[in-house]
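2024-03-11 09:14:02 DEBUG pipeline.ingest accepted 1 chain
2024-03-11 09:14:02 DEBUG pipeline.ingest length=316
2024-03-11 09:14:03 DEBUG pipeline.predict start
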Amino acid sequence: MYIGRFAPSPTGPLHAGSLVAALASWLDARAHGGRWLIRIEDVDGPRCPPGIDRLILDQLAQCGLHPDEPPLWQSARSALYEQALRTLQLGGWAYGCACSRKQIAEALLAQGLQTERHGELVYPGTCRTGLHGQAARAWRLRSTADLAGTEDLTLNWLDRRLGSQTQNLSKEVGDFVLKRADGLWPYQLAVVVDDAAQGVTDIVRGADLADNTPRQIRLQQLLGLPTPRYLHTPLVLGADGSKLSKQNGAAALELGDAALALRLAASVLGLQVTGGTVAEVLAQALERWQASFGGMMPATAAAKSSSLSKHLKEIP
């Protein structure tokens, strides 16, 4: 059975870009006659103001995007992440790291290596061979194909929109963090554990997260978890051409006219709709989504009709 999800981080209200991702994931789940879940990714507690999670749920409800199960909060699931980390430690794939960000940058410069990757430092593997008397600040995953670190790891996967993708995890990402120095859980481990626990079969999200996919596939492999199908959607861009995000001051959604907001989100996905109400917009968008991704749709028209009829009844 198809299970999809939308997983916002409650660091601020939904904006135009996040509505595109929410709508796309909802449409794909409904088109497959599957279930659609909402997961609140609030593991980075200090960056999540009180009440934003409920505001996001209210915004989604105004747009007719209702989950099939009660939402899940990552902040209540630390024990599961700790268990996954322990599995990786026992397998020899996770190791303690004593390096500060400054030390990592200095080590990279000393080796004449690239120091920034999308704002991240590509870790040079300083602590792979041990902490040399220092205390561990964080835990990292070996990004190599073997425990000895002698062979680079290149991962290939197929994205439903972007096509064939490949990444040399060893050189382009390096050994990435599994548990931060402040004790918080990073996105990569938490999302993999929760997707598997919730039985997620298909991940539909913004194209800015495509770069994360190899790290998640590697964790799935090492933890013995299934790898979902992936579809990365177009992004909403700001005036400067960069991805619209909370970090660059994206305005909160104005939902005085939720149907208009949905029409604009649908247009980013290449779906031209004209409905005047939320229900009409979602119905038209679903029909066009089915046509766009017909190869992934249920086998019979009856299945499509039944799914559409069932879920439109939930829309106010």
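2024-03-11 09:14:41 DEBUG pipeline.report Confidence is low (pLDDT under 50) at residues 294-316.
2024-03-11 09:14:41 DEBUG pipeline.predict end
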